[in-house]
Amino acid sequence: MRDFFIFVTMQESNIIFGIHPVIEALKSENTIDKILIQKGGDNFQEILNLANEQNIKVSFVPHQKFKKYQSKNHQGVLAYLSPVEFADFEDTVSAALKKNKESVFLLLDGLTDVRNFGSILRTAECTGVSAVIIPQQGSARVNEDMVKTSAGAVFNIPICKVNHLKDAIYFLKAHDVEMIGATEKANQSLFDAELQKPCGIVMGSEGFGIHHGIIKLLDHTYHLPMKGKTKSLNVSVAAGIFLYELCR
User: Among 68, 71, 181, 210, who pairs with 204 as Cys (CB 3.0-4.6 Å)?
Assistant: First the structure.
């Protein structure tokens, strides 16, 4: 089946073009990160059905999005292949807690910058995080830029995609994992906290932080002391401080 695939190696990812190649990729063992479909097109129902079964994000985009691929027989559809395999969330958490009762999990709520994502993965792997958990929708893609920024750490730490981050938090709390949020709006400083393990740390997006609905589910929230005029830190830097405070 792989002979039907049209792969184009780009800086950001491997891409499959065309209706039948994308269908075959969905039916195979390939890990697809995202599918783009041109608005107004047809003959995509099988792709939509298969993508829905596998919880793969599908975005309908204007024809301009395909303009740079005019030389490809894209037929109004393309799929981005992920360079890594995603781990099963529940199995990964259960195995981690069985192996280490002081496991640490990192949840990324709406992180969109791939370089921040890569930097965080690098620190997470260095600090012994058991798994990084991201939502299916609204998260930075796992692509070559992310892999490069992570210095290859992405291949040494489980990454789990879940339909909804709230469900992941409920599951973790049901397994006695204390949930912690990093937010400048918190009343208590991280350096005054008595951190317990196992725990899950939630880091928010670059622009909006942690969603309000997520914050309400957390056991504790902490901020980092800021002595300068700048109001906040880059999320990858903040994640590093939180993770190394846990190590300390």
Answer: 210
